[in-house]
Amino acid sequence: MDLKNSDTRLFLAEKSEPDGADGRDRKSEKKPRAYLMYCVMTLSVMLLTLAFAATELFAVFFSDVYPERFVMSKLFGAEAESGKNFFELMLEQSFCDLSFGGKPTAPPETTVPPVPPESSVLPEDTAMPDTSVPPETTEKPQETVPDVPPAPPDGMMPVIGMDLSLSHFGLDYIHNTSAKSPDMSSLAGISLSTDLSKIYPSDAPLVLIVHTHGTEAYSDPAAPWYDPEREVARSSDKNQNVVHIGRLMADILNENGISTIHCDVMHDAESYSGSYERSAETVKKYLSQYPSIKYIIDVHRDAVVKSSGELVGAVCETELGRCAQIMAVIGTGESAGIDTGYTENLALAQRLRERLNGIAENLSRPTCLRPSAYNQQYGAFSILLEMGAAGNSLAEAELAARYAAEALCDIIKGK
């Protein structure tokens, strides 16, 4: 490269200065300094890009939201759908623009209406429009105002809806944090229906619904933000928390001929600590009084907060409207040294997910398999159901209760 040609230089030429008393050529010192400055700037951009990527990856992989879904979109936005791999996108983001001004954006594509085929024959009643003078009109053009959500008050964080179904991974996908490796193909052979008519009276209870964390509640849809410094979505009002959701499920099960007991005790009312021990005593009391109980359903609601602070509501659209997504949690008991018989419980969870996603594609989130017990060692078929999350509204959870109860009716009856 000819550095004497000013059109090919990396930086603007500097004025030449006469040699100093020491006889050194000042102009010859500027060239390596300019080159060194260019190298330093390039290295700085690369280091900043790598630091940004590392920060984003840490935030995504250690967030409460499933990382498989959001890694690429979190780092690269809409360009993650371009089909390029991670390294191609990273190189583009690193070296496309060294001015720190961001990547250049292409102008929006304009859709050109198709040109109709030419024809020399017009219908007899068709008159050619006069395009020389535009038609007069008194109407003013309407301005399109973008729908911008209001900014939350100081110190508050937004409440957002998200699809957490991960349905593209298939119905057999489970979020497994236990040391167990269940054979998913064998679960379909487990019979889940129960006919106790030859053993117990026809009105003998078959299902028990309890609430270990009965004060778990939902968000107010009229206030799309929350205070991260305060307790989130809890209430002792049994018409506003998950006790209400369990009551709706029990009513539907009973209406369909499946005798169900609903215990409305909020076992976390006095203290969140020890709530599972208290609910275990309740379960054992009912089982000793009603040995016909085979299904134990502990109704909760989940809490999902993104690493950036937004409170998440797990939502999907159904033919009856916007609905909270449902997630089953199954415990293996290994962390407590307890055999929960998790295989049968997992079979119930997977059958329920299949039924729910048959109603609406994204109605069920993946089953969670965890090493805790959740009192699931007491019933033949025990399951913990997360009916939506803290960011959902009560109305969304009510619709989820209807769908879950109807699906359980079909499973218990063997339909």
Structure description:
With 415 residues, the chain is an alpha/beta fold. It is 30% helix and 14% strand. It folds into two domains: 6-95, no CATH class; 157-413, Zn-dependent exopeptidases (Aminopeptidase), CATH 3.40.630. The strands form two sheets. The protein has a seven-stranded mixed β-sheet with strand order 2-11-10-12-6-3-5, with helices on both faces. Strands 1, 4, 7, 8 and 9 form a five-stranded mixed β-sheet that branches. A hairpin with a 2-residue loop joins strand 8 (311-318) and strand 9. The termini are far apart. It is elongated, with a radius of gyration of 32 Å.
Name its key features:
415 residues; alpha/beta; Aminopeptidase; 2 domains; 7-stranded mixed beta sheet; 5-stranded mixed beta sheet; 7 helices; disordered N terminus
Helical content (DSSP H or I, runs of 4+): 25-40%
CATH architecture of the largest domain: 3-Layer(aba) Sandwich
Q: What's the number of helices?
A: 7
Which class best fits the helix and strand makeup?
A: alpha/beta
Q: How many separate structural domains?
A: 2
**CATH first level of the largest domain:** Alpha Beta
| Cα separation of the termini | 80 Å
Question: Which superfamily, in CATH terms, is the homologous superfamily of the largest domain?
Answer: Zn-dependent exopeptidases
Order of strands in the sheet with most strands: 2-11-10-12-6-3-5
Largest sheet: 7 strands, mixed
Rg measurement, Å: 32 Å
**Low-confidence stretches at least 5 residues in length (pLDDT < 50)?**
1-29, 62-71, 93-147
The general outline is elongated
Strand content: 5-15%
Mean pLDDT equals 78
